Amino acid sequence: MKLRFARSLILGLLLGSLAGFYFGWIRFPPATRNSAISDLAQRYRDEYTVLIAAGYAADGDAAGARERLGKLAIDDISLYLRRSTERIIRASARELDDIRLLARLAHDLGGATPLMEPFLALGGPDP
Amino acid sequence: MIPQKSSADESRRGAPSYFSYAVFACSLIAGIALGLAFTRAYGPLQRGNAEPWQLRADERHHFAIAIALEHAHHGDMARSLHKLIALRPAQHPLDALADAACVLGSSGYLRSDSGISALRSAVALYTAGGRAGCAEQLLPLSAIESAPDPIDDQASAADFARPLPTKPPLSEGQAQATIRRLVPRPVALRSFEARAARSTCDASNPALIEAHVVDYLGRGIPGQRIRVRWGDQADIFVSGLKLDRGDSYADFQMEEGIEYAIDMPGAADPLGASLSAGACYSGNRRLLKSWRVTFVET
Q1: Residues in Cβ contact with B87 at an 8 Å cutoff, skipping those fewer than 6 apart
Q2: Which of A33, A38, A49, A96 to mutate to test the interface with B (most CBs of B within 10 A)?
Q3: Residue B17 has what pLDDT?
Q4: How many CA atoms lie within 13 A of B210 on its CB side?
Q5: Per-residue pLDDT tens for B89-104?
Q6: Which residues 176-205 of chain B have a CB within 8 Å of chain A?
Q7: B42-101, pLDDT tens digit by residue?
Q8: By CA distance, what is B60's nearest residue in A?
Q9: Which of residues A15 and A121 earns the better pLDDT score?
Q10: Helix crossing, A62-69 with B113-128: angle to 10°?
Q11: Do B38 and A9 touch (CB under 8 A)?
Q12: Residue B165 burial (C-beta neighbours within 10 Å; 0-12, 13-18, 19+)
């Protein structure tokens, strides 16, 4: 009898907690405002990176861009830019101008790759 | 003879002997409640699924500045507004940007050229939208234009005789003879303006006046006297005494139901509005409002 009770209790609590965590964290995350920029979802991390890349295109301040990208809590900014830009190029996840901005920033911060070269070589006004 | 329960009987009832559906249902509900309570208590899972509007205030300020930087590149107001609105500000998005610029400008953001450039972008964006804030006064260019010439020998003797806050009063003759020679004029002539008084609802610091004294570059200035008056009483507190909070910081504990006036004696006029520790709500908790006041050197 005791074993029957314990087995049902533990299984119920386990499944219930998993369901609670799923709904509380993933399906309906709490509407609190206590996240850091580094906690942003990938889509918004890309958005933030494009904002910084556009700022860099405007002011040419590489140190400032590096400092602002540091908010994403990444160890190697050049590597991050390289991977992000290549992923966005492969997935066509952003507009052409955004990719040009990212490629330019990646290039100037030491993260350019052959995949970015066409975007760096594109004619027209500075992105 | 007592009839024995057979397994056929139990299967007919639908509950095998090794499991209790009633206990399982109750514990399942309890588990869901526990899981939900835990996620509510500890906020979003740190797994990179946050949206910009879920950023905490200081991080939202940086995100807003990044939007302003982008605006400096493409100049598209509608696009920038759209992104600022995505931060779900409690006020007009450009006012929120102005506040963000003001807060950052008052907290050391202007120590680097990058910070100055970023705040210029923010000021350009919100002034283009017809808004105003304190950041335009904090930026060094405007400050330099409006700053008095520190070696102007034509200044009046009254300016020189203004006592230093930390000095004891001097007799009239001493003041003329001593202060003119020994006291650096920029320090003696410092004056401030109270700006950016904002209320906060913080459970960790209820009913607190947080004052910050900064120069026009946003650098904290220690040793500045701030006066709080209520009724017929007054108290003085001094910036920079709490080393862990920086040179600019000073605070004063309020009591509920009392209205306080704040100024810097001899250096800044009183803030236009009085401050009081009224009720505020954080979640379902009733707290007492705190205030953050910034005195900016003029």
Answers
A1: B52, B53, B55, B60, B63, B64, B93, B96
A2: A33
A3: 66
A4: 21
A5: 888 889 899 999 988 8
A6: none
A7: 766 656 778 898 888 899 999 999 999 999 998 888 899 999 999 988 888 898 999 999
A8: A37
A9: A15
A10: 80
A11: no
A12: middle
Nearest to B62 among A16, A61, A71 (CB): A71
Which residue shows structure tokens 């890309």?
A46
Altogether, the residues listed in chain B come to a count of 298
- In chain B, alpha helices (H): 7-13, 21-42, 57-74, 77-85, 93-105, 113-128, 135-138, 140-146, 157-161, 172-174, 180-182, 185-188
Write down the pLDDT at residue A54: 94
- Of the candidates B141, B139, B175, the one whose C-alpha atom is nearest the C-alpha of residue B157 is B175
Beta-sheet pairing, B259-263 with B249-253:
unpaired
B166 touching A (Cβ < 8 Å): no
How far apart, in whole angstroms, are the C-alpha atoms of residue B171 and residue B108?
A: 38
Q: Which residue has the tokens 């507004």?
A: B81
Tell me which amino acid residue B130 is. G
Angle, vertex CA A102, rays to CA A96 and CA A107, nearest 5: 125
* Cβ–Cβ gap A30/B66 under 8 Å: no
| Segment A21-49 mean pLDDT | 84
Residue type, A56: Y
Q: Chain B: nearest CA to A83, how far in angstroms?
A: 17
